[in-house]
Amino acid sequence: MTQPLDFLIALSVAVGSAGLVVATLRRPLFRVVTDLCGTTERGQFWTAYFCVLIVLAPVLATSFFLGFSDAATNPDLFLQRCVFWSSLALTLALVIFGRSVLPPRSQRFPSAPPSGSQGLPKPNGPISSDEG
What we know:
By secondary structure, this protein is mainly α. Helix content is 69%, strand content 0%.
């Protein structure tokens, strides 16, 4: 294969895989980010920012791979390596974004009520059976 064709194939793999991830996560991510940010405009900005970085991560990783690859001497492994680097970059980007959106552990798991109380409020005064 020639170098321009190698680059186009690698770029297609990277953009295609990132496009699938963006198409799958865009709506749910927009709802979560809007909820976290408070306004629709902020949610739109951070969703667009996420989508751009999700596309750039595999493109940059694959381009980096092409700069140091031996694709000319071993064309059989070329596509496999493109898919690997693209998938690795997507996975790392998703993990980083997931960790940044995830609330702290103290907010995810509120403390349980003391045992025996079953979460019911304590009465303020004596309880009588006849209200009359």
